[in-house]
Design goal:
Distance between the termini: 45 Å
Order of helices and strands: HHHHHHHHHHHHHHHHHHHH
Number of strands: 0
Length: 336
């Protein structure tokens, strides 16, 4: 469609002028203007958002553009990564994005501190007030718990706030270890086609925590997972591993790395999986794949040498292990 054509044109322009900040800003701004930007351009846009921050010295306007971009792609972890050290410089709208992401990522203390800095600004936003009520329902002062829960329930009955209020109710129920309410709300969200992979993964974790491990494992095995972001992949595979389904975690992550290979944490997670499973030949292959992943921009090359040395040692190939270790020492010696 026209969006894809425009994106391809932008990619070509960037390729011809990689250091042109104006073109970078225009291209990223176009992505932000799309309600649901195509996932096929996720790696390119994320990498160039961080490239823009480097070129521009992380100026506030570029940081806010990046926060909007990450929000469009539902990458709340990246919103926090970029925004948490810039709180004092962000405009109200960007602070709202950061506030939402703090809560969604379980950073409730950061949420409370940021709210307390700008209570009047945030309270004027109906959606942010729902976040506040969710916080009051479980993490606020004892005197506010009941009022927060009632306000959150009222928001669930409001058609404009229902989707958000239901998702926040899941977080509250999870924190309270209230699986009955969590399951009930999750079913309602399924009927509304509103439930996400993360919502289900947290449900399995809650069920497991309550001593119903086999039920959690069965639900996880049978769920048709389709991840929409690197964060969803991380939540999924980490949950599977915690349920003892490491082989399934390895298999899924192997496929997802083809789409989200630019995300360093996914490679670290897969390496940990393979070490846990003692799959040394696969670990050796992973080390090569890390160095060949263009999206990582060499950021994990030294780590890949370590993985290669570890794999070769356990494969009883001492000379190859020593060579990898020597390359690791050499790269460490030349790193600024």
């Amino acid at each position: 469609g026209r969006v894809a054509e425009a994106m391809h044109s932008w990619q070509a322009a960037i390729g011809n002028n990689p250091a042109d900040i104006r073109i970078l800003r225009e291209g990223l701004g176009f992505v932000v203007s799309q309600k649901s930007p195509p996932k096929e351009f996720l790696e390119f846009t994320v990498n160039h958002a961080f490239w823009l921050l480097r070129l521009g010295g992380t100026n506030t306007a570029d940081a806010e553009l990046t926060l909007n971009l990450m929000t469009r792609y539902e990458m709340q972890d990246y919103v926090v990564r970029v925004g948490e050290n810039l709180e004092d410089r962000l405009a109200d709208n960007s602070l709202g994005l950061l506030l939402r992401s703090y809560f969604q990522m379980g950073r409730v203390r950061n949420f409370a501190k940021l709210w307390d800095k700008h209570p009047e600004t945030f309270s004027r936003d109906a959606e942010l007030q729902v976040y506040r009520n969710a916080w009051l329902a479980n993490w606020g002062p004892a005197a506010t718990l009941q009022a927060g829960r009632e306000a959150l329930k009222a928001a669930q009955a409001d058609p404009k706030l229902r989707s958000l209020a239901n998702r926040l109710q899941l977080q509250v129920s999870n924190a309270m270890r209230d699986e009955a309410t969590y399951g009930q709300v999750l079913r309602l969200m399924e009927e509304d086609h509103d439930a996400t992979l993360v919502d289900h993964a947290r449900h399995w974790t809650l069920i497991n925590a309550l001593g119903r491990r086999e039920e959690a494992r069965d639900l996880a095995r049978n769920y048709p997972a389709v991840a929409r972001s690197p964060m969803e992949v991380r939540v999924l595979v980490t949950t599977l591993s915690s349920l003892g389904l490491t082989e399934l975690s390895v298999s899924i992550l192997d496929q997802q790395l083809k789409t989200y290979g630019f995300d360093a944490e996914l490679w670290l997670t897969q390496a940990n999986n393979l070490v846990t499973q003692k799959q040394w030949a696969e670990l050796r292959t992973l080390a090569f794949s890390i160095r060949n992943e263009v999206g990582l921009q060499g950021g994990l090359d030294a780590y890949s040498q370590y993985l290669e040395a570890l794999a070769e040692m356990n494969l009883e190939r001492p000379e190859a292990a020593r060579a990898a270790a020597d390359r690791l020492a050499k790269s460490a010696g030349t790193t600024p």
